[in-house]
Amino acid sequence: MNPAAPVHLLVISGSSRTGSLNLALAREACRIAEVQGATARLLDLRALDLPLYDGDIEAGPGVPAQAGELIAAIAAADAVLLVTPEYNGFPPPLVINAFDWMSRARASGTQPAGLKATAGKPAGLLSASPGPLGGLRSMNYLRQYLQMAFAMIVHPRQFALSRADQAFDATGELKDEKAREAVTGVVVSLLQLGAALAAPRGE
């Protein structure tokens, strides 16, 4: 896949800790996207430093400005790929909190409201876990969350990387060819969907 106008992919990892398996998988997805001729941006949710959602903060100081950074990044992308760990079978607070704040943000100047930025936006899902399910439960809950609350178009193709603590080599690349092919399949399918749904260039 080498589109004339490169598809812009936003990749979001649900974990930013040192040694994160999902961050490693997100970086691998970025490399794959770029090989396919797309541009890829890896967004660090932890760097946004959003407080825990609190209605009193919203009613007082208001929605933190950092939520606008996430909105702008999603609005600028043709597709969004979320790479999620699993915390007790559910998506991590880092993702849910950021998206909850974004959902409360209203339009400001040229920036759309949070829910406007996500509506109809193609999304893809990957997960990684040391366990045998590879974070599958978290990914399935996140699919429902993004579709129902944010009206995103979540591609049916997804991949859960099990035994992820053994999956990467010293350079951070996937060792198993089948796993790499599965991740590539998700990325390519999402890029194709993003290209098909993107507004015509030049308008």
Automatic annotation (TrEMBL):
Residues of the NADPH-dependent FMN reductase-like domain: 9-164
Under InterPro entries, the record lists: Flavoprotein-like_sf (IPR029039), FMN_Rdtase-like_dom (IPR005025), NAD(P)H-dep_reductase (IPR050712)
Gene3D superfamilies found in the cross-reference section: 3.40.50.360
Q: Superkingdom of the source?
A: Bacteria
Identification of the protein by name: NAD(P)H-dependent oxidoreductase
Query: What organism is the protein native to?
Result: Ramlibacter alkalitolerans
